[in-house]
TrEMBL record:
It comes from Paenibacillus lutrae. Pfam families: DUF1256. One of its GO terms (molecular function) is peptidase activity. The lineage of its organism: Bacteria, Bacillati, Bacillota, Bacilli, Bacillales. This is Spore protease YyaC. The gene is yyaC. Keywords: Hydrolase, Protease.
Length: 203
């Protein structure tokens, strides 16, 4: 299945990054990375953030936690899909992508999801060009989504993936979601210059 989103241009692509969420420099570095990508978009191109996951599994709740965190910040410069109240998960992902396609013309999609990895990488946040493949770590065949992807490595992969996700520390997932949301919010505000205050003033 063709990835949902606009194919990224091969020129001027930044190399993917992988940063520990616990490093004090990570939020600033992530925000700068997001900004460098988003500032290249035409001002008229809609930005859509898709946070994939479910609150029924601690490890897989990273996406919805990021979505709810962003929603509370109230930035009006993008469209958001996937929160704790209205998660985007395996059952409704395809329908959500159809809705996005019907509602937005050529959107630039930022896809966010949890993943499993090596022991040394647990707690790291990865950002790169191209789509993510939700459910790949637990052998689910779901549509690929995103022009860029953000993944948080929440636990160790390779065996009993469902059990591992269910037994991931909530503290880790929440801390990672805070870093991702704050960095992305800062980048979006820098690029699109829209905040709750400015939106209210313009009404």
């Amino acid at each position: 299945m063709k990835p949902f989103g606009i194919p990224a241009k091969p020129a001027n692509k930044l190399a993917s990054i992988k940063l520990p969420h616990s490093d004090n420099r990570t939020p600033e570095m992530l925000a700068a990375y997001f900004t460098s990508i988003l500032k290249k978009l035409p001002s008229y191109q809609p930005i859509v953030i898709v946070c994939v996951g479910t609150d029924r599994s601690t490890g897989d709740s990273l996406g919805p936690l990021v979505g709810s965190n962003l929603k509370k910040r109230g930035n009006h410069s993008y469209s958001l899909y996937g929160t704790l109240d209205e998660p985007v998960h395996a059952i409704n992902l395809a329908d959500t992508l159809t809705t996005i396609g019907d509602s937005h013309r050529q959107p630039f999609i930022v896809a966010i999801d949890a993943c499993l990895g090596q022991v040394s990488s647990v707690g790291s946040i990865q950002v790169g060009h191209g789509p993510l493949k939700p459910g790949a770590g637990v052998n689910k065949d779901l549509p690929a989504v995103g022009d860029i992807h953000v993944t948080g490595i929440v636990n160790v992969g390779g065996f009993m993936e469902y059990f591992v996700l269910q037994n991931t520390r909530l503290s880790l997932v929440m801390n990672m979601s805070d870093v991702i949301a704050s960095s992305l919010h800062q980048a979006l505000y820098t690029v699109r210059h829209v905040s709750p205050t400015s939106a209210l003033m313009s009404e």
